[in-house]
Design brief:
10 helices, Arc Repressor Mutant, subunit A, alpha/beta, 2 domains
Amino acid sequence: MHIRHSKLLSLVNQYNRIAVTELARKLEVSEVTIRKDLNMLEKKGLLRREHGYARLTTSDDIGNHLSFNYEAKLRIARRAAEGIHNGETIMIESGSCCALLAEELAANRRDVTIITNSAFIADHIRKYPNVRVILLGGEYQKESQVMVGPMIRTCVHDFYVSKFFIGIDGIDDAGFMSNDLMRAEAGRCLAERAEQTIVLTESAKFKTHGTVKLLPYSKVVALYTDDLADKDTLHKLHEQGIHVYPVSSSSK
């Protein structure tokens, strides 16, 4: 993604709703260029267009989560992608960092197969020719665009991969947490079919609790996050045997 697009997303996040004329002024480009940028970003599900304005997507929409702190999430995804090689088959659960990981692999690896329960991810990377996507079936959650329910276990049963990537909504003393019961169950089903489970998350999630148990610390081998995590949390993760990969939280 062009650096201007990242700056544009940051402005939309800052103001929630902002005029095309104001975007053009702040980014020092023409309104025609801004409209082309908005068309592209809307197709990716990162924002919504209104007449003369751009605005955030609805709060429960994955596009909204993806556009928030986009640059930091992209750096996390790119760092995680370094451990994945051409020809690998991996599993990826839904989530903003996970969606960016899938796009990074689709754009920069060859013959990678991604098994996922995320319809959003499947659609997000559909234009890339060098990636194969296996979309698991199940009950469709409209806002998160993810497949959940008992059919997930049946669909994933015949697969076994080396790496499974998943996002989280929080942590507690026992492990990682989610805010959705059905998604948590689906995530556990996928984790059972992988040699290694790897978490991708912003450190801000360490300050929240979540409502549903997702995975115990013992089931996760590595975690990619930004470098803003507090020392106590990092110490806790290291004590649990989780290898933490901190990524710079800024582009500088």
